[in-house]
Amino acid sequence: MRVGPFWIGPPWERPPRDVVPVLIEPGRAFGTGAHATTRLCVELVAELEPQGLLDIGCGSGAVAIAAALLGFAPVVAVDVDPVAVETALRNAAANGVRLDARTLDATTASLPTTAVAVANVSLGVVETLLRRLEATLVVTSGYLERDAPVLGPYRRVARRALDGWAADLLERAQ
Asked: Taking each helix axis from N to C terminus, what angle separates 62-69 and 36-46, rounded to the nearest 10 degrees?
């Protein structure tokens, strides 16, 4: 899949020469990078100034890896599934980037303060996270285009839709 400046795909495929490849071997973790929500998140992140990023529900690591390749640092990737964390770390190594990846339930555990957070999870989890996050910008997805998350202390800056799915760029209201 072409997504912004990237081609995201499995290591057995050949990326075109005019893109930055993000090789993703999903193993038993969620995400190959082809799903509309992942593509939308990567597109929105690619338009932001690189700074610290927290990827909540990282799955196979596609968004976190793309962010690291764009110069975001530090990149912290968390998932409730330890298999996803292991997969994200393996994929990061295969792409020559470093992630601080850990198993964490973001709905209950303490979350680090960050400039940018990404949450490509279910609508209910997004709404829970928006009440708990300390981030200047948040990219959210994992819900349908007809859904409108309760934003809490954030305001919508941009919305993208693809194949019936939506992603929002949110900014903390002052």
From this structure: 20
Beta strands 20-23 and 6-9, pairing class: parallel
CA distance 40 to 168: 9
- Choose among 122, 164, 159, 172: nearest CA to 43: 159
Q: How far is CA 143 from CA 10, 91, 146, 148, in A?
A: 25, 25, 8, 9
Distance CA 56, CA 122 (A): 11
Tokens 């019936």 -> residue: 164
CB 69 within 8 A of CB 22: yes
Q: pLDDT, tens digit, for every residue of 103-131?
A: 999 999 999 999 999 999 999 999 999 99
What is the domain count for the chain? 1
Nearest Cα neighbor of 36 from 159, 137, 161, 121 is: 161
pLDDT of residue 96: 96
Domain that holds residue 75: 2-172
Contacts of 127 (CB under 8 A, 6+ apart): 149, 150, 152
Residue the block writes with tokens 């799903």 = 35
25: domain CATH number is 3.40.50.150
- Which helix or strand (DSSP H or E) is residue 32 part of? none
Distance separating alpha carbons of residues 148 and 37, to the nearest angstrom: 15
pTM of model > 0.85: yes
